[in-house]
Amino acid sequence: MRDDYPVPDYVPMAATALTDAERWPLLTEGGRAMLTRLREHPAAPLYNHACGDRLTQASVDRLKSYQDTLRDGYHGWTSTEEPPWVDELITRVYRTVPRYRGKSRPAKLADVPVTDRLDLLSRAFECVPDDADLDDLIVYQTSGSRGPAATVPMSPEFTALDLPVIEYVLARHGVAMAGGSSRVSLVNVYAQPVAYQFASVSGYLGGAGIVKINMDPSGWRNPADRVSFLDSCRPEVYTGNPISLAALAELPLTHKPKAVISGAMSLSDTVGRHLEERFACPVIDLYGITEAGLISWRDHDVHRILPRRLYVEILDEDGRRCEPGVTGEITVTCGENPLLPLLRYRTGDHAALEWRHGPVLVGLDGRAPVRYQRTDGSWVNSIEITHVLSPLGLVAWRLHQGEDRALTLSVHETGAPDPDVIARALTSLMGDVPARITLDDLAQDTKPQRYTSALS
Amino acid sequence: MIALSRLTRRLSETPNDFFSEHASVAAVLSDVLTAAGRPGLNAQSAERFHSMDARWRQLVLISCWLLADEPFREVMDRARVLEFMTGTLPPLAGLVEPRRFVTDPDRREELARLAMLALEVMPEGETAKQAADRLATVDSVRRYEVLEATKAAEQRAAAVRKAMEAERAREAAARYSQV
What we know:
The complex is a heterodimer of chains A (about 450) and B (about 180).
Chain A: H1 20-23, H2 29-40, H3 57-71, H4 85-96, H5 117-123, E1 138-141, E2 151-154, H6 156-160, H7 162-172, E3 184-190, E4 198-202, E5 208-214, H8 225-233, E6 237-240, H9 242-250, E7 259-262, H10 269-279, E8 283-289, E9 293-299, E10 302-305, E11 310-315, E12 328-334, E13 342-355, E14 359-365, E15 371-373, E16 379-381, H11 382-389, E17 397-401, E18 407-412, H12 419-430, E19 435-440, E20 451-453
Parallel strand pairs in A: 3-5, 3-6, 6-7, 7-8, 17-20, 18-19
Antiparallel strand pairs in A: 1-2, 4-5, 8-9, 9-10, 10-14, 11-12, 12-13, 13-14, 15-16, 17-18
Helix pairs in contact in A: 3-7, 9-10, 11-12
Chain B: H1 4-12, H2 25-35, H3 43-46, H4 54-67, H5 70-75, H6 78-95, H7 100-103, H8 105-118, H9 128-138, H10 140-165, H11 167-171
Protein name (chain A): AMP-dependent synthetase and ligase
Keywords (chain A): Ligase
GO molecular function, one term (chain A): ligase activity
């Protein structure tokens, strides 16, 4: 672990607070054995975090029955009508969520004001319903790949909703995870200078192993351990993002997973095909946001919206609904996160909505990764920039690299620290590339395109 | 219709007898009712006025003086008066020291308006909406409820902030996909 990396959150094991019994309320003998196997593996990564599923039996039961919810389809959402649950959600939110309290409930969704990440960033505590159980509250930072990184409250059960949803999508590709405590079901792969690494087990998957790893050699005792550890885990599924999965594909791994799942950024056709050939399995491109969970999966040339209790609108710059086929901002309404029910939440991503045996996103403009070049010619990914800038508490920023390699960083003026402090954080990653920092008012731009470059 | 100013002036002139610890509330109230030609209290209806909280008792006596004013006689309704005395006044007495309904202009206006509302008589020169709006601005119970709701909201917001900053929350739970 590099000790000079300017991200205080990543001090090894400094972010743990629970006992194993609290991390895994349903831990069985088999699950315990799997955990020990992963933790004590001679080629294991340098774990710097511990993380469980925090699921009770009641949660697992509800997650199992969520398969029925997914099978039910679009819950009354048709090409011409909103699903009826939207109306109930509006009523519930206006009754229980502080930021809506005292305001009169609009008669229809189209009259509900839109919200976005800036709202959430500045008023997250006003977005948690009065009747939500705070004992069940956990938080995540959004990736910050678009707009400012925000702290998002949710429940462990909502986090684990990914599993039945992933199973649903895998089934569309003829793949089923077997689970069970003798198997590692899923390895979540990152490729960053530093990232959390931990071993876990899933109560939902019968005690199956779950591992989060970082491809960066600094996260391992020996870089060759990555291959021996992963081939020994034999995971059913790898999940990651295009950058980390591309790095994974470079390793001389012999194990072939049942499927590879990509998220967080757009997966190009070229990279997708390369991964399919390399791992000889389906490669699935998922799109979602931390605040609402998984939203859609790529089905040939469209992104098919998942049949969750999730409603998607496409809005133009003035907040008006776009006609089918017209590109605008993807805006979600979803009550499935009990700590953060969302009404008309602007995602910052763009697509058109069409109806092809169900709602689909066309031309999804996901969060394409942007690379920045150092003076020695090496590249830095925009996610790493987010990691050094986020701890400074910046509300929003825009970073551009010009053709002459010079960086221009425009930071939202409210609450911004001294430009010298920002410059030092940027220099810690980018070295001696000339950088100009300005403090500006970015509030007009509800979702600034955070990263742009004339070079990549 | 009754002129508000007449009632507030009357309250400001409440005689000392109505502050007496020795006065019998049931007897005074019976007098107010019978003076308006309505039946007084019987043994059963007088029962609830025998052992009273001191502040409620004081406020009922002040209100008896108010309702004994001439213009109220015509609109006097026994059931409404009893509801006013036993339903409206106890929470009000719990929030406001009763003497303030004599000494403080806003509290005099509040009690006069509440009495008119209870007996369904309009303040002179006001529409129903104006009367309701004006009462809302001097309504102690409503102000207390708003303050309590504000306090509860602030406490909840602090609890949510604390929960979001807790290390337990930040350890989080394993995630299975990248978004």
